[in-house]
Specification:
With about 650 residues, the protein is an all-beta fold. Strand 41 and strand 42 form a beta hairpin. It contains one helix and 59 strands. It folds into six domains: about 90 residues, Immunoglobulin-like, CATH 2.60.40; about 90 residues, Immunoglobulins (Immunoglobulin-like, Sandwich); about 90 residues, Immunoglobulin-like, CATH 2.60.40.10; about 90 residues, Immunoglobulins (Immunoglobulin-like), CATH 2.60.40; about 90 residues, Immunoglobulins (Immunoglobulin-like, Sandwich), CATH 2.60.40; about 180 residues, Jelly Rolls (Sandwich).
């Protein structure tokens, strides 16, 4: 069981950085060794996860501003078992754009009669910001405010006058954005009634014999309206006594008529309207045919892979209409528009996810018509798998354990595991980052190494092939790690060149390094040219060594170089005793040769830039057994990394 809690200091300002930090209570189960944070933009449907190890707090990076994310945590045990999701929390990352606000009511140009009640409505798009309240202003003065959506306010008892109305949104830490203004007029109440005929009559054609609906628009202004009479010219047609005042003139033959209305009000007053023309024709013209529009797409119903771009093309038949433009929508989002044929839009870098696209033709007086929608899906690109090692073209001894590694970029997919192959043979797998495998490397010959990332529903992404060669270690040479190292060293012997990689530190009372060695009985020496070095840490050392035995605290003499290019002489004269070191100028590969000579109990180190003229560096009497170990030593300066050295001209004599 995992109990999840969201840290109180996660706030809008911090969320703008694109990261969220959450914490949780520890699981009481003693078998739990770590936790995973699952997250996504849909509740209980995570799209990715982050393994934070045995921590009670973790961060998720690279999130999109203005988007709501849902988070849950699981606990897992060393056996691979994983708990159910914890309770879920969610938060919205703040965007960088301010909110947008518009005053949608009343519309500019509206007029009202005093005393008026005006309904003010504001539309707010937060853009990921925290909306504190919306303030309603008239001529710059506050008349009311609302703290929650919907943002509406009724301004009552408004006197006659002209008013400039605005909505102001207050967000985040008190920042503000003001809408465009809406200008309205409140007129003084009229004391006289008014009457007018419905103006739509003059704009409508009727087919003979016609039934023409007549309607009078009456404002009583507090007067008593007795009835309304309807006339064709001076001919009385009929009357109505109740609001709305209407009458149906039936059987009207073809012709042009002027109709009007008169109302009787008060005690005996009469008020007439202006006349409106009514046109009755023999037959009505056929209704206009609307334009047709279709969206041309080659991905309808299919799934494509990101990154994806496409050209949206609308095929439009105007049918006699004037086409203003064609707009392209993805759901409710306007992608772009084109005002002239051919109607096209280049949609670049289509977002990952489901899309529903339509083409909307705008014609006549802003009439619109949509095409049938086209659905398609954009999935993330497949993961990328980069082979990390061993390097392509390298050679190793078959007794050298190799650390295989792959770097996987998931691209939004959930990686199940990474399989490591030699040819068609599965060497092993790793299900967590960093993806690696320690391989014994005991197969002779050329190996075609590759890594396969398994993701989704058993889908596969593959690395390039790295070709390495595994060979026998030529007697009398042996190789192995001395002391305790975190990463196993390795050796490659090819054509007189020795490549040695090792971790650890040669210093103090015990050593850790990788040793390519053979036994030396009695007096003798080792000579080698140091061609190149690749140090991974500042405390590393690479060179030649004569060692009393293969324990970590053995007596030894060492001559080599440091990452700084400094020549080092080093020796331990007592088992598990302290190490003495000395530095002697610079030594830069490939112009450095190292030589270590044993004469009786005297061990002497030499250096040379040409392999012929040798300069003594230092010497020391160290009592050792008759049979000692002589060879090449490589230490990175850390148990967690490997340093690499390339040697040549290697000679061991008596």
């Amino acid at each position: 069981m995992v109990w999840l809690w969201l840290l109180g200091w996660v706030c809008a300002e911090r969320l703008a950085s694109g990261s969220v930090t959450i914490g949780w209570n520890a699981s009481p189960d003693p078998s739990v060794i770590g936790y995973k944070i699952y997250y996504g933009t849909e509740s209980r449907n995570p799209a990715a996860w982050v393994d934070v190890g045995n921590q009670l707090m973790g961060s998720v990076e690279g999130l999109t501003a203005g988007t709501t994310y849902f988070f849950a945590v699981t606990a897992y045990a060393g056996s691979g078992l994983e708990s159910d999701f914890s309770a879920e929390v969610s938060t919205t990352l703040a965007g960088t754009d301010p909110p947008s606000v518009s005053l949608v009511a009343p519309v500019t140009g509206s007029s009202f009669l005093a005393p008026a009640s005006l309904g003010l409505v504001a539309s707010v798009t937060p853009n990921g910001r925290v909306i504190q309240r919306v303030r309603f202003l008239q001529n710059g003065l506050l008349i009311g405010e609302v703290a929650t959506s919907p943002y509406t306010f009724t301004w009552n008892n408004v006197a006659a006058g002209n008013y400039r109305l605005q909505a102001e949104v207050v967000f985040d830490g008190g920042q503000t954005v003001v809408s465009a203004s809406s200008s309205v007029t409140v007129n003084a109440a009229s004391t006289s009634p008014t009457i007018a005929m419905a103006s739509s009559l003059s704009e409508t054609l009727f087919e003979a014999p016609a039934n023409v609906p007549l309607a009078a628009l009456v404002v009583a202004a507090g007067r008593t309206i007795h009835r309304v009479h309807f006339y064709n010219g001076s001919t009385y047609l009929g009357a109505d006594t109740t609001q709305p005042y209407t009458f149906v003139w039936t059987g009207v033959p073809e012709g042009t008529y002027w109709v009007s209305a008169r109302m009787l009000y008060g005690k005996s007053s009469v008020l007439g309207s202006a006349s409106v023309r009514v046109s009755v024709v023999r037959s009505l013209p056929p209704p206009p045919v609307a334009p047709t529009v279709s969206l041309v797409s080659n991905v309808a119903g299919s799934t494509v892979t990101a990154p994806y771009s496409t050209e949206l093309v609308a095929s439009v038949v105007a049918n006699g209409h004037i086409i203003s433009k064609v707009q392209f929508y993805d759901g409710l989002t306007l992608l772009g528009e084109d005002a002239s044929a051919p109607y096209e839009f280049s949609w670049v870098e289509v977002a990952v996810g489901e899309h529903s696209v339509v083409a909307r033709v705008v014609y006549a007086t802003n009439a619109t018509l949509d095409s049938e929608s086209v659905q398609f899906w954009v999935e993330p690109p497949p993961p990328t798998v980069v082979w990390q090692g061993p390097l392509d073209g390298s050679s190793y001894s078959k007794i050298t354990p190799l650390q295989l590694g792959a770097n996987v970029t998931s691209n939004g997919h959930e990686i199940s595991r990474v399989d490591f192959y030699s040819g068609e043979s599965l060497l092993g797998s790793d299900s967590s980052e960093p993806y690696s495998l320690s391989w014994a490397g005991n197969i002779l010959g050329v190996q075609a190494m590759r890594a396969l990332a398994i993701y989704g529903n058993s889908r596969v992404a593959e690395s390039t092939i790295a070709t390495i060669t595994m060979g026998e270690l030529t007697p009398p040479w042996l190789t192995g790690d001395i002391g305790s190292v975190g990463v196993s060293g390795r050796v490659s012997l090819t054509g007189g060149v020795q490549v040695v990689e090792g971790a650890g530190v040669i210093f103090g009372t015990s050593d850790a390094f990788h040793f390519l060695y053979q036994t030396l009985s009695g007096d003798g020496e080792i000579r080698v040219r140091l061609n190149s070095t690749q140090f991974s840490e500042s405390g590393g050392s690479i060179g030649v060594m004569i060692r009393d035995n293969l324990t970590s605290g053995s007596k030894h003499a060492f001559l080599g170089i440091l990452p700084s290019g400094t020549l080092r002489w080093q020796r331990r004269t007592d088992p598990a005793g302290a190490t003495w070191i000395g530095h002697y100028g610079s030594a830069i590969p490939p112009s450095i040769r190292l030589r270590l000579v044993r004469t009786g109990s005297l061990l002497t180190g030499y250096s040379s830039v040409n392999g012929q003229d040798w300069t003594a560096v230092n010497s020391r009497q160290i009592e050792m057994t008759a049979n000692v170990f002589v060879g090449l030593a490589v230490a990175s300066g850390s148990n967690a990394t490997l340093s690499r050295a390339v040697f040549s001209e290697l000679t061991v004599v008596p």
